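As the next step, I selected for study a record pairing a protein sequence with its C-alpha cells, which the following lines show:
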Amino acid sequence: QGSVALTLLSVARTKKFTGELKSLDAIHLATASILTSPTTQITFCTNDLKLARAAEKREFPIASLLQGFHL
C-alpha cells in the first residue's frame, strides 16, 4: 500500500522535471524529492551530468563513481 502511494506521488511529481530530464532521470529525481525530509537526506550517486546538475539545483549532495567528475 505504501509503495503504491509513493509510485503515484512520484509519477505526479515527475511531470515537473520531464522538460529538463529524460523520463527515468525525472522519476529518480521526483522520488528522491519525495523521500527527503528534515531527518532523511538523499545523496545522488550518478555519472550523468544533466541529472547531477538537476539534483544539485535542488540542493541534493552529489556523489560520483567517475574519477574527476565535476559539475
User: Anything to note?
Assistant: The longest strand covers residues 44-45. Residues 30 and 43 are 13 Å apart (CA to CA).
